[in-house]
Amino acid sequence: MAEKILITDNTRGEPTRHVPRISGGPVAILDSYYAPIQELGLETYVSELETYGYTVIPPEKVGPVDFALAIREVLLRVIEERTGVAHQVDRNGDHGHYKGQPQLDNQFLLYYLLFADPIFEDWLENPVLRALINFVMRDRGQLSSLTSFVKWNGKGYGDGLGLHSDSPASPEGVLPTTHDLVCNGALVLTDYTKEDGALAIVPGSHRLARQPRHDDGVKWAVPVEAPVGSLIFWHGNTWHGAFPKKTDGLRLNLTSYICNRHMKTQEAYQGAVPKEMLARHGAWFARLLGADDPYGWDEEGPGFEAAASYKSGTADASD
User: Fold this and answer.
1) What is the DSSP string of 98-162?
2) CATH 2.60.120.620 occupies which residues in the chain?
3) 20 to 30 A from 147, CA-CA: which of 7, 111, 175, 189?
4) From the CB of residue 29, how many other CB atoms can be counted at a distance below 10 Å?
């Protein structure tokens, strides 16, 4: 017999509704995705995510702002290593000799950051990021890329704001409606305002199940303004881009792009992650990096032993 439990909105301390909890079966699986959301007080933000296609988790929920600032310092170091030019947050950027594509006059992307410093491993273990990934992807999420958009004063994407959806469409141009193929989270490393080149999002566009046509979403786009340390998280179908940065200085973030396990990742992790890195973390981290993926075999066939060595199919926060 089902036991009714009271769900409390931890952000307001008010009871919201009763739902049955049943041991075993699909309800128990759903509980495993939702329980971390409750424990972290993210119910209101998940409601926004489902309604508007995105949400902004404030710094006090995400973690210490000092950690975000430490990531920013590491990024500045990586920028100098890859461009050959020392950068400061309050000054405009310089491509230097960096050739990473695509590049705009006032922007470049830093790729493959996971291996640049252990601090990026620590970010992937952030409880809020993990809970949101598991909730949206139903524990079928895999890291596709860990990047940073480095932007400074300039035109940017132009009048169209670069609006797009991250989800791959069918040949007919239809985006999935039953489950997410991808989702995205941007850790804000410099204050986001419209003048400072904030993320642009079209609220509710995740329900349209298509890519924007021409500039049909521009007039509905809103700036996602947020302080350092915030986490902006959105569904794969959500239309987004960025407003032009009209102020001097850098706009920095750390973008965690997650794809369904059956998709090809943007960055090469399978087989590239050192055993020492996996040993520093639990089974969830290993699955996030595809360490349990048996596909891509040679004449010896699939490596099912690797898949069996990591518990799969659960969002258990303890692994």
Assistant:
1) ---SS-BTTEEEE--GGGT-HHHHHHHT-HHHHHHHHHHHTT-EEEEEEEEEEE-SS-TT-TTTT
2) 53-267
3) 175
4) 15
| Structural fold of domain 53-267 | Jelly Rolls (2.60.120)
Distance between CA atoms of 143 and 229, rounded to whole angstroms?
Answer: 21
Residue-by-residue pLDDT tens, the chain, 319 positions = 344 334 444 444 544 545 555 556 666 778 889 999 999 999 999 999 999 999 999 999 999 999 999 999 999 999 999 999 999 999 999 999 999 998 899 999 999 999 999 999 999 999 999 999 999 999 899 999 999 999 999 999 999 999 999 999 999 889 999 899 999 999 999 999 999 999 999 999 999 999 998 888 999 999 999 999 999 999 999 999 999 999 999 999 999 999 999 899 999 998 899 999 999 999 999 999 998 888 888 888 887 776 677 765 444 444 6
pTM above 0.85, yes or no: yes
